Amino acid sequence: MDQILEVLSLFLSVENILMIALGVVIGVVIGAIPGLTATMAVALALPFTFGMEPVTAILLLVGIYKGGMYGGSITAILIRTPGSPASASTLLDGYPMAQKGEAKKALSMALYASCIADFISNLSLIFLAGFLAQLALSFGPPEYFWLICFSLTIIISVSGDSVMKGLVAAALGVILALVGMDPVYGTERLTFDNFNLMDRINFIPLLIGLFAIPEILEFYLSRAREHIQTAVAGADMTWQELKRSMRTIIRGSFIGVIIGAIPGTGATAASFISYSEARRNSPNRENFGKGEIEGVAAAESGNNAVAGATMIPLLSLGIPGDVITAIILGAFMIHGLTPGPILFQENMNLIYALFCGIMLSSVVLFGTGKLAIRYFSRIADVPKQILFPIVLMFCIYGAYAVNNSTFDIAVMLVFGLVGFIFNRTGFAAAPFLIGFILGPMLEDNFRRSLLISNHSFDVFVRSPIDWFFIALTLLSLGFALHRYIQSLRNN
Amino acid sequence: MKPLMKMLMAAGAAVFLPLMGTSAQAADWPAKNVTLVVPYAAGGTTDILSRRVADLLGTELGVTVIVENRPGAGTTVATAQLARVSKRDADYRVLMSSPGHTVGASLYPLSYDPVKDFRFIQNVIDIPNVLVVPAKSKYQTFEEFVAAAKTEATSYSSPGIGSSIHMSGELFKSKIGAPNMTHVPFRGSGEALPALLAGDVDFSFENLPTVYPMIKSGQLRVLAVTTNEPSPFLPEVPTVKAAGVAHGLGDFATSAWFGLIGSASMSDEAYGKLQVAVNNVMQSQAFNDFLPQLGAIAGKESGDAFKAMVERDINQWAALVEATGLGE
């Protein structure tokens, strides 16, 4: 009883609740602006937390993290510009929905899926932290390697009409991801002696270019075409639709939780895996990529479930799973706290107070999202000739702001052109993106595995986790092959 | 006055007044806000401590110290930018330099001279590296470990190529002569630590603050610290330098340092005043309360001593990179 009172006294303060709300609002707004990521917002907010109570400080940062994760979906749906990398998969169906005049429906689904996933993720953090932390530690380089092999099979799901074109796009993504310094030997690869390419091609300008710029180019090249969307007037999501997507949301949440608990894989991969699994299991498979509401549900549940789960390795092991949790780790240390098993022993009340706040943040996220939909969906009503110049300006600023680098603006424009050519030639941008993100992870973990095993290939089958993902990969490929043969027969 | 005359005078004023401003600026420096460039992305250790230092330095100087993140190519992008800074801005732009400056000198093609193009103000913070092994490792002491590492195949993790952690490992390897020691690079400590905790790699020279919680909880065992003196946080742990004399490690000292540098064209006025201000910051209670939270200690080297340290490091890493064939 005393402990409960102490936890409540730590948690129940005006500042805490205010900071959670403030954090979520900041996160949603920053997340919605292309190029401004939750990572930047958390980093910039950090100095303001120096003077706060530890619980208040961490809750502010967690609020921004969660808000940002959701906020990215808003612009992805409305203007095909993912506000954050993790919402790239949201636009696959979200934007076609908006084009059909269903922006409000898509935004609502994104919000419900995000909040439900967030809630499941929080529960996992509270009840399964110990188990998931142990699981995370059993993931060494070979296990990552197979996880990524399995993840690569999602290229089949997001290739659009032609798997062959999808594979070509993915290969192109892999090649471009090789640019930079070799991770083991430090030699330059495909840098053409350009200084700016030595640190690899920056991901965010590439992302903005690939998705937002082609849309703007298309608009100016075919102004006569009908581009009208009526978002606010559009219908809201029905309960029936939410019920139909529930399985997808829960599946996506668990995928997000597991990926989130393993350091270094990230929300982008989680959302794509969730999307791919949803498509595979859906009766409306053919409708994915053309405005299927379940696609939005899958993507958003996948990426939002990561946020709570990345706190698992952070709190229980002291290991930050991504850049944002690395900053939150910094915030803990600034306040003289060291996350890890010791924190659980010495500051259990603080952990419980944090859990209370994290749970509350899900509720606040829901409220903020509802408001955001009301105001942001008006963007869809702005005439395109006014909206697109503004979007372009944000894109340029966003690309620049990541590293304060003008070279990145050029990167964005080049990939804008690439995206445009993809659009015109029927290549999908999503496989390209997946190749670009997962290609280097595959290479890194393949080489690391061989380094730790002294070049023995036995390391790739050293644990049941390896076999599990090998089986999943084979199943996934077998399933795709089966469908392909079936479609041949039907034709 | 004729309109033409008025215009000419105005034009003259427009041309000359700013110049007068510049000469006046040097006398009462700082006349405007100072920018502190952080050569890493927002959010890392360097960023966190730079923001704290910027805050305190701003109070000391009476102007705002703006933090600007300019990551890229292991700090060399930001450093190249500082080397090229115009004379007008030279007094108002400083960089939080780090081992990236000295390692980068041999890993990246530089457009600047890493010593001559800069003025070295003050080494502000030293973060020691520690030699850690997983709890289940068979190595109990530094002595046991070194003896085994010379003959057995061992591997160590680092958060990336060219990091102070990687270079510590390479230096250690070359000094004790361990042909079977393998470097396993990760991308960031967040990815490297699970491999270390799980025993996929045998050891690492991690930054002390990163692994301190794991040392405290018993998940990692610390065998030695890499600084010249034992760490106040781990007083009972020997230094590599002291414990490794017999193995040719008598001059082994590495740490992640963070120090302020300006461009070579920085005026004496600004340089001197900055040095005083930074020293005042380093004496302050706020700074000394903040250091232990990062597991850090105050840097010692100032001015020429700082420059000499950078020069020594550049030579040390250059020789090592040459010997190991890194980047070829």
UniProtKB/TrEMBL annotation, chain A:
TM regions (residue ranges): 7-33, 109-132, 144-160, 167-186, 201-221, 253-275, 323-344, 351-373, 385-402, 409-438, 467-485
Domain DUF112: 17-433
Entry keywords, A to Z: Membrane, Transmembrane, Transmembrane helix
The UniProt record lists the keyword Transmembrane helix: yes
Matching InterPro entries: DUF112_TM (IPR002823)
Keyword Hydrolase: no
Domain of life: Bacteria
Protein's name in the database: Putative tricarboxylic transport membrane protein
Organism ancestry: Bacteria, Pseudomonadati, Pseudomonadota, Gammaproteobacteria, Pseudomonadales
Automatic annotation (TrEMBL), chain B:
Signal peptide: 1-26
Membrane-spanning intervals of the chain: none
Keywords for this protein: Receptor, Signal
InterPro entries found in the cross-reference section: BUG, Bug_dom1
Signal keyword on record: yes
Family to which this protein belongs: Belongs to the UPF0065 (bug) family.
Protein name: Bordetella uptake protein
Organism: Pseudomonas flexibilis
